[in-house]
Amino acid sequence: MSDAEKAFGKRGNRDASVVNPRPAGTVDGSRRSGPVGPGREGDPFLIGEGMSGGYGRGPDILHDCTIAVEKGQIAVIVGPNGAGKSTAMKAIFGMLDLRKGSVRLDGRDITALNPQDRVKAGMGFVPQVNNIFPSMSCEENLEMGAFIRKDDIADTMAQVYDLFPILKEKRRQAAGELSGGQRQQLAVGRALMTRPSLLMLDEPTAGVSPIVMDELFDRIIAIARGGLPILMVEQNAKQAMAIADKAYVLVQGANAHTGSGKELMNNDEVRRTFLGG
Amino acid sequence: MDILNALVAFLNFVFIPAAAYGAQLALGALGVTLIYGILRFSNFAHGDTMAFGTAVTILVTWALQAAGISLGPLPTALLALPLGIAGTAALVLLTDRAVYRFYRVQKAAPIILVMASVGVMFLMNGLTRLLIGVDEQRFADGARFVINVRDFREMTGLQEGLALKTTQALTVIVAVIVVWALFWFLNRTKSGKAMRAYSDNEDLALLSGIDPEKVVRLTWIIAAGLATIAGVLYGLDKAFKPFNYFQILLPIFAAAIVGGLGNPLGAIAGGFVVAFSEVAITYPWLKVAGYLFPGWEPGGLLQLLGTEYKFAVSFVILIVVLLFKPTGLFRGKSV
Ligand SMILES: Nc1ncnc2c1ncn2[C@@H]1O[C@H](COP(=O)(O)OP(=O)(O)O)[C@@H](O)[C@H]1O
Ligand SMILES: [Mg+2]
């Protein structure tokens, strides 16, 4: 269903003076968080373990899927289109109901937390699409990233501007007017504004030119060097595995291969099916 | 001096009434556009929200008057306004909890919310009538005029008189303050920016830790405030009658759409466009023409439309705008 069809319930006149065709959020914002449990001995920093679930009352998209990130490392998820990479990210962020499995962060079981509270627990997420506030200025986008903070955000903003100088140049400009690459930088910048203890990026280099892509990769590596663990979905499997400490190949919602970036690059089957020989 | 007389007649019969009416429409349209931008539907209950808020304010005004409290030259209703707003905010929050939230959680198509708001409209309609009755109420007290016709004539020596009612001056002043406060809130405060962020991208607002239910509640409270203020100013300027507040919904929607739905600046511009058109088209220009062209004796009153047809003006403006500039004068959502 297109946005317009959703807004008008597939019937009647399609007059936007009655109904705002902007799509609604996909997450139920009124859901309250449940209790936080204890983590398990020897857990990685973040682990989504044995996750099964799908959207609403639809069929399961994820089947016993496990993704983990160690402190100070980069983990990447690769896989064909529609494999459920974005779904796995959303599941880790509490944006869909898991039927099975649990998510644990930094020694705590956060499976029952809603997305708002996961932000407060230290997770930052850059979704694959619609990852900026288009009618707000760049600076306001960053401010909104820091919404939950009560302290002074000027330092963090300066750091983001250092990382992405173009954003400083365009800070008064509406984010919707930025180019694709600039948007992605802003989206990453927004997520950094909470000073998260874990950063999740869903295809941060989608739809940008190769030069901008290399630059973005450099920046992401720089962020990781700063000690921030990163979980990233990436369609450029080769480049992604080259920088990954841990890589997951997802096929049809299940783990197909797991290993260090190097191991997977040297794995014949992975090479043949995902890296093009 | 005839040009001056023409100007005074124009100010007295067209400009001042239209400016006051425009300010009332603008405040109403701001509430509609805010709900549209954030909750994604056109709230048909807005007119009756205005009526309810005004009714509560009138009741409090009566209580204050009975207690002998007044504001001197200003209407006592100003003092009652905060309580009126609080009562209305409580009602709309209750409505949201009981009606709209149910559909929001289900992610229902917004057209369903529009229909629900029609139901809420009838409910509030009845509630207001139960509360205060169906009759006309006049509740303006204090000084009636800032400038009255006789003083003006004596002061200027002009043949034509000019009157500025306290309620008209008050309407414009209060509207300016409220609009300034609203824009300051939306553009400068964290909560205001969070509202704009939510209206841009609900999911991303959530991912930034913004609580969507808080944004929705805040929106309703602000809309209730705007509706009550608009309703009280309108009631002070004209008179309070529940049915009029149902009728005013049309020019308010016209204003919001003409300006560009979802765009607060557009709502204000739209309010004045609709008000000035309505007044100018239903005003008999004979007098003004008489001063400007002394020799001319036109056959009629030079009135384009009878005042009975004033709501038709909103319709015509609406249709013209939708045909030629569907996004409104300021860029809102495309229609
Ligand atoms: N909001 C949604 N509602 C229902 N199904 C969805 C939704 N988003 C994605 N899907 C389905 O989930 C599957 C996995 O999608 P996704 O996680 O986006 O894949 P990937 O990111 O790996 O390309 C696809 O079959 C897709 O159709
Ligand atoms: Mg994806």
UniProtKB/TrEMBL annotation, chain A:
Pfam families, per the entry: ABC_tran (PF00005)
Keyword Nucleotide-binding: yes
The keyword Transit peptide is annotated on this UniProt entry: no
Gene3D superfamilies membership: P-loop containing nucleotide triphosphate hydrolases
Signal peptide: none
Sequence ranges of Basic and acidic residues compositional bias: 1-14
Boundaries of every ABC transporter domain copy: 46-277
Keywords, comma-separated and alphabetical: Amino-acid transport, ATP-binding, Nucleotide-binding, Transport
Region (Disordered): 1-49
GO molecular function: ATP binding
PANTHER family per UniProt: BRANCHED-CHAIN AMINO ACID TRANSPORT ATP-BINDING PROTEIN LIVF-RELATED, HIGH-AFFINITY BRANCHED-CHAIN AMINO ACID TRANSPORT ATP-BINDING PROTEIN LIVF
Family: Belongs to the ABC transporter superfamily.
Name of this chain's protein: ABC transporter ATP-binding protein
Organism from which the protein derives: Paracoccus maritimus
From TrEMBL, chain B:
Pfam entry (one): BPD_transp_2
Recorded coiled-coil stretches: none
CDD domains: TM_PBP1_LivH_like
Membrane-crossing segments per the record: 6-39, 51-71, 77-96, 108-132, 168-186, 215-236, 242-261, 268-286, 306-324
Membrane topology designation: Multi-pass membrane protein
Family (UniProt): Belongs to the binding-protein-dependent transport system permease family. LivHM subfamily.
Keywords carried by this UniProt record: Amino-acid transport, Cell inner membrane, Cell membrane, Membrane, Transmembrane, Transmembrane helix, Transport
Protein name per UniProt: Branched-chain amino acid ABC transporter permease
UniProt keyword annotation of Transmembrane helix present: yes
